[in-house]
Amino acid sequence: MAIAPEACFGRFVADLARVVSALVDAPALPGPAIEAPEGGWIVTLQAEQAVRGVLHVHFDRTGADALAKRVVGMDVEPPAEVVIDTLKEMCAQAAGSLVLEPPFVGGRFVIASVEAAQDQPAPGHSLMQIVIGDIVTLRMRVWGDLVMSATEQRVQDAPTTAGASPGLKLDVILDIDLPLLVRFGRTEMALRALIALGPGSVIDLDRSPDDPVEVLVSNQVVARGEVVIVGGNYGVRITELMSAAERFRSMEIDR
Fold this sequence. Notes:
single chain; alpha+beta; Chemotaxis protein chec; Surface presentation of antigens (SPOA); 2 domains; four-stranded antiparallel beta sheet; 10 strands; elongated
């Protein structure tokens, strides 16, 4: 079954606005646009699993450049690779929010491509924009063709068992255990010094005992905190959570 474009385009841009607001720490208001984007980039997202098809988002060049410049904190105009990385991060986070609510629950979006825009109107497109504080207005052209997979459609049409929760799939995902790592410090050692290590050797981690420890999930720092004792065991009291902007800045970008 095809998904109504308005159910997809508006929702995606609304999620995108929330991501942008978090990245630049400023209000970001989504809505329809009158003027079409000029130049810029087209990000294509491929839908998989419960939802199939593609979603294209054409970002205006002026708006995309100004947004990327603000996100990464640059004083000069950002190079193309920085703008592309910014748009990919924004779209990936917005797509992650999109699949948390019907009719997209169970779906998955991946960034299929990013290419320079040719300013050619797309069939069935919608003109949208995000007004980002006093920074810039990000104009977009959004179009695509999304359908529910045959399996998902049968699930949607099947009678609902009394008392069953429509968010059952998400509940199952939330029960998945993820490895969490606490890092007290890190350093680099020459191979000669590493080979020479033995019982009694001391490794300098180049950190003060008062410095916060890092909490990592999937090798990504998600929080910082202080070491405490809980029931005779070590624990960590969270003192700082990483914002979306800080997570983005932690990515290694070749400038």
